[in-house]
Amino acid sequence: MTRVLVVDDEPQMLRALRVTLAARKFDVMVAEDGTRALERAAEWPPDLVILDLGLPDMDGVDVIAGMRGWMQAPIIVLSGRTTSNDKVMALDAGADDYVTKPFAMDELLARMRAVLRRKGKDSDQARVVIGDYSIDLGTHRVRPTDPDDVSDDVRLTPTEWRVLEVLVKNSGRLVTQRQLLAEVWGPAYTKETGYLRLYLAQLRRKLEREPSRPKHLLTEPGIGYRFVE
């Protein structure tokens, strides 16, 4: 049974999430503040953490940073904070996704499934489908999925491959602009957001069926990018 640690200082929210998740066969533990969250995560290692940022004893970003010092379980932030800066800080601290309150339970459950799939995936040999193409990160090949299509492989530049690889290996997760720039170009380039617009546009032209309406290589305006299978 998948273990989920829910951290929120609102008793009604804790109760609602505990009942809803338990009904869907999750094993649920709750914590009302950051200190208890860190203690319970250590005593009862979760498979997934759902975390509010506005906790009474410490900021949720500090809880994320504390957990990331030793724990690899996915963390989904569930918060009433809606500014881009709050989202970027949480994601840069190590959160895997960010859902704003009020939220639809179906959306939260879908985000939970996405990060849990990512956790269980062997991303070193990831093979994914984007539009009409199969992407094999192990062999660096992009081939048509239709066996009757005799077209040549799609050619990607080394930088396009690197951008695509970071997004695919974080499938379903929102990758911040800063993180993507640092991983592809290095820490000195974390403000060069124009690079990302250029290379994402190139990848969409080569891989998406409708580059102007992408379904797989998505932009979260002002925050970052997300790959969706």
Query: Regarding CATH, which class of the largest domain?
Result: Alpha Beta
Taking all residues together, what is the mean pLDDT? 88
Q: What is the annotated CATH architecture of the largest domain? A: 3-Layer(aba) Sandwich
Tally of helical segments: 8
- Roughly how many Å apart are the termini? 25 Å
Main β-sheet: number of strands, strand sense, barrel status? 5 strands, parallel
Order of helices and strands: EHEHEHEHEHEEEHEHHEE
Low-confidence stretches: none
Structural class: alpha/beta
> Order of strands in the sheet with the most strands?
2-1-3-4-5
Would you count the extended β strands for me?
11
Q: How many domains would you count in the coordinates? A: 2
